[in-house]
Amino acid sequence: MLKKILLGVAIGLVALCGVIATRPATFSLQRTTTIKAPPDIAFALVNDFHHWGEWSPWDKLDPSQKTTFEGPATGTGARYGWSGNDDVGAGQMTIEESKANEFVRIKLEFLRPFESTNLTTFTFSPTTEGVSVTWKMEGHNNFMSKAFSLVMDMDKMVGKDFDNGLAAMRQVAEAEAQKRAQAAQDAAAAQPAPPSGEAIADPTP
Questions:
Q1: Quick one: DSSP state of residue 66?
Q2: What distances in angstroms separate CA 30 from CA 99, 154, 161, one per listed residue?
């Protein structure tokens, strides 16, 4: 009887491994939002890792996590590392390429609780309202990732974090846009008015 049970378990494991092996070898997920702010404001929130704490959906999971910043302050070569509790794990991000107000491409490396390397890209496209921001992540599925996908929908799980992060980015960027607009109004109002009775020169040649 025991031999039959063990044989049945072995056959079941082989069948499960076969099912896991048929899962997609790669994955890709993305989310997009429109922000009522100039593209340079949203771009700066991504291109400078020092700003990620203002909108990242994961930074608040462990307020006491340890973070490091290496390389340039912004743009290509900038690196951000983190190490925290089980909710955030440990890893690092490195900006591989960025083009002002257009895109930022980041190498994302997870070190704990599992090791993996993915590519993350933020794309910024001007719109009549401000800027459209697309957050995309893509990579390869190893055996464990394929097994995990049998019970969890990664697009829904991580996509929700992307939605929350973009919503926070929108709030921060739009607040900064309002500050900028108010500062411009204040500067214009502070300009001295021409003396009473003084003719204003006609700028037309």
A1: E
A2: 20, 11, 11
Q: How far apart are the C-alpha atoms of 5 and 132, rounded to whole Å?
A: 57
- What distance, in Å, lies between the first and last C-alpha atoms of the chain? 104
Closest CA to 137 of 158, 153, 119: 119
Site of tokens 């204040």? 186
Q: Which ranges of the chain have pLDDT less than 50? A: 6-10, 12-17, 19-21, 143, 146-147, 149-151
Domain of residue 168, residue span: 24-180
Q: How far apart are CA 147 and CA 21, in angstroms?
A: 9
In a domain, 108, yes or no: yes
Spatial CB neighbours of 147, under 8 Å, sequence gap ≥ 6 = 20, 23
CA 159 to chain centre: 11
pLDDT at residue 114 in the model: 80
